Amino acid sequence: MEGFKTGASDLAEVRGRVQAHLAQTFGDGTELLRMAPLAAGACQENFRLDVIVASRPGVDRLVLRSDAGSSLPGSLGRREEYAVVRTAHDAGVPTANAHGLANGLLREGSYAYLLDWLEGVSLGAKLVKDPELEAA
What we know:
alpha+beta; five-stranded antiparallel beta sheet; 3 helices; globular
């Protein structure tokens, strides 16, 4: 997990906690295949997770979003963000669904949750320069 910034001294321990959280969230037989950091995120850390969920065919891709060691003034923490995402999804807003809010998953005192993976670009700097999105 190159680029891992949690300060955790034992990456195997972190993977173990993530594996246990996946099983608690999606059920026994859920297996963490890959955990890789994603670029960007000034007030959170994001990881791509490839997992096998026993109740579904194939490999699922998720995003693990966790509070970073520091944050930007006025930004939402992952606990508050989780509530917003769940509320929006439950109200029918076309957005990824959030699962399994946890405290201390990657770092003590930091909240984290799982988010369904959606293909696309989420970096603001890239979005505003994309000619295909100019009308939006």
